[in-house]
Hints:
Four copies of one chain form a homotetramer.
Chain A: H1 9-29, H2 36-43, H3 47-53, H4 57-79, H5 86-103, H6 105-111, H7 121-144, H8 153-172, H9 180-195, H10 199-207
Chain A binds a DNA duplex through residues 8, 10-11, 14, 35-37, 45-52, 56-57.
Amino acid sequence: xxxxxxxxxxxxxxxxxxxxxxxxxxxxxxxxxxxxxxxxxxxxxxxxxxxxxxxxxxxxxxxxxxxxxxxxxxxxxxxxxxxxxxxxxxxxxxxxxxxxxxxxxxxxxxxxxxxxxxxxxxxxxxxxxxxxxxxxxxxxxxxxxxxxxxxxxxxxxxxxxxxxxxxxxxxxxxxxxxxxxxxxxxxxxxxxxxxxxxxxxxxxxxxxxxxxxx
Amino acid sequence: xxxxxxxxxxxxxxxxxxxxxxxxxxxxxxxxxxxxxxxxxxxxxxxxxxxxxxxxxxxxxxxxxxxxxxxxxxxxxxxxxxxxxxxxxxxxxxxxxxxxxxxxxxxxxxxxxxxxxxxxxxxxxxxxxxxxxxxxxxxxxxxxxxxxxxxxxxxxxxxxxxxxxxxxxxxxxxxxxxxxxxxxxxxxxxxxxxxxxxxxxxxxxxxxxxxxxx
Amino acid sequence: xxxxxxxxxxxxxxxxxxxxxxxxxxxxxxxxxxxxxxxxxxxxxxxxxxxxxxxxxxxxxxxxxxxxxxxxxxxxxxxxxxxxxxxxxxxxxxxxxxxxxxxxxxxxxxxxxxxxxxxxxxxxxxxxxxxxxxxxxxxxxxxxxxxxxxxxxxxxxxxxxxxxxxxxxxxxxxxxxxxxxxxxxxxxxxxxxxxxxxxxxxxxxxxxxxxxxx
Amino acid sequence: xxxxxxxxxxxxxxxxxxxxxxxxxxxxxxxxxxxxxxxxxxxxxxxxxxxxxxxxxxxxxxxxxxxxxxxxxxxxxxxxxxxxxxxxxxxxxxxxxxxxxxxxxxxxxxxxxxxxxxxxxxxxxxxxxxxxxxxxxxxxxxxxxxxxxxxxxxxxxxxxxxxxxxxxxxxxxxxxxxxxxxxxxxxxxxxxxxxxxxxxxxxxxxxxxxxxxx
DNA sequence: AATGAATGAGTATTCATTCAT
DNA sequence: GATGAATGAATACTCATTCAT
Lengths: 214, 214, 214, 214
């Protein structure tokens, strides 16, 4: 109704509290199986208060998604050495993504709602497109630099995104029982090897010990 | 209560009809947004008949999942040359999977429910595990034959599965606008390149024109 | 539809089989919780056959009630010495009733439906009225003979009926854990004592060892 | 889930209103034939509110049963002279019960569900057991005092309970068309006469004009 | 800001009964 | 007589959202 409600500091906290409780519950049970009353009970407030902070359940979810996407992107940016070559940057971004997704596993379970619920297609798609653009420009730069195989950059781009997403998924759902560090390194190298124009380049990039610590 | 109802030929047809209608609707609108009445209306029968053939909505869904998994596996088996080396077989199976999933895109949208709905975790997980075992044994054989990089076979296996799944997903959801043949070939090669012990092997396997036509 | 269908000998048997199965199930679970399909499954026949023998579920129930009532009445008649005085006859009838109801406990659980389901009020009421008339005439004869207290015969009559019914109920439902013979004797004496004009008469009647063996 | 919801004064009223409406409807049509919507419509509230106050239809019914039982017991307690002998107290309790059950005939029709619906067996049984214990201790005291015949106290106890229940039943269902006062007096005397050790005692107790006016 | 009572649209499931074969 | 597929009316319960206080 208000579009954007002006909140006091205390109000901000309350809202964040609701967002956090909701995120955890959504991740645990999924969107449909999490009732508004579950969220407010987890936060220890009355049902009516939910609608003081959020338009409705859907709005909260979208807010959650946008915020997670944003934080992931920031994390990736911080992990990538601006001075490095595109393929190294991709490796760094990949490792950072795997780590971040493992650390916020509950959050990312949410994003997979995408596949199901048409009602969220737009928010999710939008976030995905931004990410695809980020990766895409690196891939193109890598091709131009002769580091990455000269194939359809769109296909290569989705390969990178998919690899990260799927390994994270299997890790999160417990099918892949390995250490996060090991996983991040493996996925980073895997991406490099798939993209690299030849073995030599791949080996060189993979050998580089300077990987982001985030 | 009945476990397995004995059906006449006509009954079998009716049941299949309901399964088909349901599959289409599930794919279109998702599981939750497809009501039982939608299914029976699509089939042109009365509501009560649904419960003659199925315990409930959930049971129908599970039956659907199991059947699709089964058909995919058969398709893969047919596509793989029993006489070929493991890596070639993986390439054949990968291509066949991409094609099959593209052809039955509506069906496979369903399988992604997995991520969301805990109530189906077991059926879906089970199907996934069977598949993982299939791929895993090929990967191991490939490593033994020196064709595949000597790394953790479990990680490699999930890389293959994830690559196929994600490319199919992006293709199905329209983010990847390419021809199925092109996609299948690309994914097949991509998998080979990621797994192959070195460039030479990868090139040799990828150059082989003898790919399954299914 | 047919009102009265003409049945072959085999048909009669089939019908009786359905009646027996139904009686047992009704007694176990009550009328509402016994489905037609439970009855036919218990009898090992198809659902449709039920409606060959009975108008509907309600009709079967009523038929059951009438038949049980009839048998009880016959049993009582056989137990009562035609030559005996009214109070002795009441004692004999009472004992016989208790025994019969214990023997057919499952049947009699059914009759208590009366209290609940308005739809059966008439059949049940009707049966009860016949019984009340039987007992009533004995009570009146007893009063005339000076054996029974000179009070409102209607009240006394319902006292007899109620005493039998309630003791049988408590026995059937397991609240009263005594031997049937003991119970029958006790109830018989109890009725006599309540009705008898004085202690002497009561003692005399109760002392009489000649009780029906049915 | 909530166990016991904390209610405001207004809430208490609303809940009682629903209980009252439900009691009336249950009595009129029986439990099964009273739909939740009938109850809320009678109370003039929305369907959903029912589930704010009660877990479900069954829970409301059980609450109703417990409350009626409680009130009956209080009524009996008030009617019995603490200084009187056990047999007199039984007579007083009996008369009070008959009056109370006549006054709340609609309520007591409900309790007879017991016979049918296994789902309520426990609540009802429990209430009945408490009552049986109350009566039982008086019976035993009467035997010890030489006022009551020296027979199995359990059998005698159920005789008292059954007599009251059955007379009330016949009265409620219209088979016994007498004045409540007359009925109460009659049942009281009848119980006394059945229990009393001899005529003299019975006559003495019955002659006592000091009966409870409740 | 906060409460919690009130609303009501939405849906899976049951089961007696019918009927073509 | 017998089968079992087909029908459809009937109903309890959920939960997002609103609103008076």
